[in-house]
Specification:
about 350 residues; single chain; Immunoglobulin-like; six-stranded mixed β-sheet; about 20% strand
Length: about 350
């Protein structure tokens, strides 16, 4: 009973609006958790499966739900993504502990601000028989990139590198890079320390910070004018990602439309092939009226309703429900006439 009430409500216009809102929110949340795959699954389940289950099988309405998902879900997902992007990453170091406590400050500031990167270099962690040469900061919009053609991003992204000499460093030192950034963007950075063997001085080893597990990059800084500026930086990328969810959804709608059309055509074919229902011709029963043998309907004419005219069970003449005798052959039209015993009787005088 409860399931039936829910389906009845969800099949109404208000219910459709509620269902659309649920589909939008569910897709937004699923996309934030697992991106493309979970977002597409949520869109198919809440935007296609449940509406069909409750009876909203109109292709037009399913398309409207899909458009709402693609138009609204990225905007909602971005609102939840901004606080995550603006959360500063903690201090990082290299696995060898040669580089320690690397940070960037401030993490979030307006264009034109100066940002400071600092790292503690511990030369005692350098393997014996080697000496430090230099340290480099890599700043880019491609996570973990240490050059302008990183395979994760291709080419064409913003990339800068800054190097300071650290020739034969003998004691721990804090190294700082200060750079002004004028353009709004979401940046990533990385550092490397180069050291060489004392003899011969041809083998160079590079020590990198341990960044994220996918690209080995460190997030930050975020350069934008306030929360709204950060939102504007993120929303375009999320809308681009949602194209995959939209493509999957509308392919599913197209497949459903094809199967629905085939099912309708099959039902129509079965209906045309079925023999028409014949009126009851049991003895003593009044059959629906129709034209007599060899009497075609006049052009444009329609058959009279069965509730207004009937046919005599003996001769087929058109009679009316309140008549008790057939005007043509005199057969009794009374309901009490015995089955199979109806015969001609004289009409009352």
């Amino acid at each position: 009973m409860a399931a039936g009430s829910i389906r009845k409500f969800l099949s109404s216009r208000l219910g459709l609006a509620v269902l659309t809102a649920i589909a939008v929110l569910a897709t937004s949340g699923a996309f934030l958790v697992g991106e493309y795959l979970t977002g597409a699954i949520a869109a198919l389940l809440f935007g296609l499966g449940i509406p069909i289950w409750v009876g909203q099988k109109s292709i037009k309405w399913l398309a409207v739900i899909g458009v709402a998902i693609i138009a609204l879900s990225p905007a909602i997902a971005t609102a939840f993504e901004v606080p995550v992007v603006l959360t500063p990453s903690g201090a990082v170091g290299s696995s060898s502990q040669i580089l320690q406590n690397a940070t960037v400050s401030p993490y979030f500031a307006a264009p034109g601000s100066t940002f400071n990167w600092s790292v503690q270099v511990v030369p005692s962690k350098v393997p014996v028989g080697n000496e430090t040469r230099n340290i480099t900061l890599y700043l880019s919009t491609c996570p973990g990139a240490t050059g302008p053609n990183d395979p994760n991003c291709g080419a064409g992204y913003a990339f800068y590198n800054y190097t300071q000499p650290l020739v034969n460093l003998s004691s721990p030192r804090e190294v700082t890079f200060s750079e002004r950034i004028n353009s709004s963007n979401i940046w990533d950075w990385q550092m490397s320390l180069a050291y060489t063997s004392n003899s011969p001085r041809t083998n160079t080893t590079y020590v990198f910070l341990t960044g994220d597990p996918t690209y080995n990059g460190i997030a930050g800084p975020v350069v934008a004018n306030g929360w709204g500026g950060a939102y504007a930086l993120i929303v375009g990328a999320i809308y681009s990602d949602y194209l995959i969810v939209g493509i999957v959804f509308f392919i599913a709608v197209l497949i459903y439309a094809v199967f629905k059309q085939r099912r309708q055509r099959r039902a129509q074919a079965v209906s045309r092939a079925a023999p028409p229902e014949q009126p009851s011709t049991a003895p003593g029963a009044l059959a629906p009226a129709g034209p007599g043998p060899g009497v075609p309907l006049a052009s444009g004419a329609s058959r009279p309703p069965a509730t207004e005219e009937l046919a005599c069970p003996n001769c087929g003449a058109v009679v009316y429900p309140k008549e008790t005798f057939c005007w043509k052959c005199g057969t009794s039209l009374a309901p009490s006439t015995a089955a199979g015993a109806a015969g001609k009787q004289d009409p009352p005088s």
